[in-house]
Task: inverse folding
């Protein structure tokens, strides 16, 4: 009885492990959509101009994720989709930073021109951000 | 039972070994160390450290994932990439906040420049207005001064003209009086000649001719009396003093006149009153009353308002 029960447990475990191991991973559709939205948002934010390296990196990761999806390698597709999503966020942040720097430079030049045109002396700078 | 206990001990030992191996692997991971150092520098930065708390928290989570799930070589690069991106995102977000605050400061500076310029323009306009107001006042004062000078000059010219006219009239009066005296002297001379021719004594002619020669006449012109009045004016008082000084015990004959116009009776009365007014003034000036003879002539052709005082030894 004991020997028969042991054999039954071993057989059940073998089939259970095989079923779990052979179960196919689902396509990461949500991750792909999130990655696509992130890259599109980076493009809309002007990342192609202000953060071209980061933007092209995100596009490349998204392309690799799509290729893995076509090859039905969903684990790899999930990894690339996550990387593309984060890279897209970085491209957005860098684009925002580039735009802000451009606006700061333009406003500083405008203030300087305005001071010269109106002959307003420069006031002592206050402690603040660099 | 003993075998089961031994198997459990082996399982626990294996789990502890795996945890220690993972911790050892994380501790020796150069990528983790690099990213951890970058994130710590950002978090401890005096300026940037507090500007992107959410992004820093996500980077911390990515580093924890690297420690927890990045043990396998296959997944290590994936989690290193994610953590690296998150750290860079945290830096970029903090720097973007810095730039936005800097832009706000520049906007305020822009407004302050415009305010300073407008304030300076207003001050200049106020000063220009004040300068124009002062200039206008100066011009007005200059105009008033010139106007006053012109009025003074006109008044002086009128007075000069009046004085000239008065002097001219007095000269004419004196000339007429001199002519009259000359005629009188001529008549006296003729009378003396007739008396001499008719056999009268030479004493008579001698007594008449010297009287005519020694007579002195002082004219009191129009300034002596006001028209229609017989009260003496200040100019007449001065003439009175002059006559009194010249009298000196001699006899004084006062002939007073009135202007043409009005009735002859009224003119005679007025001239009489004027003669008496001069007489009273001379008495007041010390001339004896008995040496004064007054005549109210009335009107006389060629004579105007005034009087003639003739001083002689008789």
Result:
């Amino acid at each position: 009885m004991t020997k028969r029960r042991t054999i039954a447990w071993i057989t059940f475990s073998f089939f259970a492990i095989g079923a779990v191991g052979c179960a196919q991973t689902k396509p990461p559709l949500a991750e792909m959509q999130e990655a696509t939205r992130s890259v599109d948002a980076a493009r809309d934010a002007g990342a192609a101009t202000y953060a071209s390296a980061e933007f092209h990196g995100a596009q490349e990761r998204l392309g690799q994720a799509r290729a893995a999806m076509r090859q039905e390698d969903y684990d790899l597709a999930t990894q690339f989709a996550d990387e593309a999503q984060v890279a897209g966020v970085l491209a957005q942040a860098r684009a925002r930073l580039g735009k802000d720097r451009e606006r700061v430079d333009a406003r500083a030049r405008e203030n300087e021109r305005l001071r010269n045109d109106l002959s307003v002396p420069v006031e002592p700078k206050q402690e603040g951000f660099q | 039972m003993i075998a089961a206990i031994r198997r459990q001990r082996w399982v626990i030992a294996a789990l502890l070994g795996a945890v220690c191996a993972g911790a050892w692997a994380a501790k020796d991971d150069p990528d983790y160390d690099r990213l951890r150092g970058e994130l710590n520098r950002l978090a401890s930065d005096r300026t940037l450290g507090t500007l992107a708390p959410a992004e820093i928290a996500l980077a911390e989570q990515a580093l924890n994932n690297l420690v927890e799930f990045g043990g396998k070589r296959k997944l290590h690069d994936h989690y290193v990439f994610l953590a690296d991106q998150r750290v860079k995102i945290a830096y970029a977000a903090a720097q973007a906040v810095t730039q936005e605050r800097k832009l706000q400061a520049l906007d305020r500076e822009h407004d302050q420049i415009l305010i300073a310029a407008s304030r300076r323009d207003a001050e200049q306009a106020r000063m220009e207005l004040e300068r124009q107001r002062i200039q206008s006042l100066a011009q007005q004062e200059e105009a008033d001064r010139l106007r006053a000078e012109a009025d003074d000059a006109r008044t002086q010219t009128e007075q000069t003209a009046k004085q000239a006219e008065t002097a001219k009239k007095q000269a004419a009066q004196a000339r007429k009086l001199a002519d009259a005296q000359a005629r009188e002297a001529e008549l006296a001379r003729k009378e003396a000649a007739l008396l001499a021719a008719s056999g009268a004594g030479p004493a008579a002619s001698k007594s008449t001719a010297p009287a005519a020669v020694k007579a002195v006449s002082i004219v009191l012109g129009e300034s002596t009396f006001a028209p229609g009045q017989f009260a003496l004016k200040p100019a007449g008082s001065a003439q009175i003093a002059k006559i009194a000084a010249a009298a000196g015990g001699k006899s004084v004959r006062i002939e007073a006149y009135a202007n043409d116009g009005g009735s002859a009776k009224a003119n005679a009365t007025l001239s009489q009153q004027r003669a008496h007014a001069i007489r009273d003034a001379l008495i007041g000036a010390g001339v004896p009353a008995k040496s004064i003879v007054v005549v109210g002539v009335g009107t006389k052709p060629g004579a105007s308002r005034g009087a003639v005082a003739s001083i002689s030894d008789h």
Notes: Chain B touches chain A through 31 residues (CB under 8 Å). Helices of chain B lie at 2-27, 30-44, 53-69, 73-197, 202-214, 234-247, 264-284.
